[in-house]
């Protein structure tokens, strides 16, 4: 433990309180932790000192930490609410979760529109929060945008039960699965319209029409095209 404390003292001495360029610290979420394990642990610290430890971390890029008031300790992590959900429970009383938020984070979907529906498709096994008895998919979109405990990237809308399944993942790393009860929506800035790529418009247009794709202005509408090809990622 002394080696850890000596290393921490060396790290702290002479450091400034300024965050990384273009980054700020969140106010902190009380009685909360981020699901997962920490990368490094320091005792006898304060919140401000823990911020410095995180900013000056070596061997990994520190994105967040939990501070324990009871133990005066911080738990540094290389993940944040872009990766996992912040969990608030009474059993985490005395723990506060802090994150280093940076401008122009490539993971951010801030300001990006939703595309969808991609009919009869969903991402399997990645629901972080379920909202029941919603009025419409538009309500799901609003809840996804305002979700405070993780960065919501997509949701499945369950048509029979009017239910939203919010998720932190999208099609960059996950494929869509078929289901007649669900429609998929995604928040992204990568596509400007719901139009399929030209290589599919020209070469396979008749095939996709037979599979159920719909033409809009001479091009295949993306939502119906992806339903036809089984959610092929582009």
TrEMBL record:
<feature type="domain" description="Apple">
    <location>
        <begin position="102"/>
        <end position="189"/>
    </location>
</feature>
<feature type="signal peptide">
    <location>
        <begin position="1"/>
        <end position="18"/>
    </location>
</feature>
<dbReference type="InterPro" id="IPR052774">
    <property type="entry name" value="Celegans_DevNeuronal_Protein"/>
</dbReference>
<dbReference type="GO" id="GO:0009653">
    <property type="term" value="P:anatomical structure morphogenesis"/>
</dbReference>
<feature type="domain" description="Apple">
    <location>
        <begin position="23"/>
        <end position="99"/>
    </location>
</feature>
<dbReference type="InterPro" id="IPR003609">
    <property type="entry name" value="Pan_app"/>
</dbReference>
<protein>
    <recommendedName>
        <fullName>Apple domain-containing protein</fullName>
    </recommendedName>
</protein>
<dbReference type="Pfam" id="PF00024">
    <property type="entry name" value="PAN_1"/>
</dbReference>
<keyword id="KW-0732">Signal</keyword>
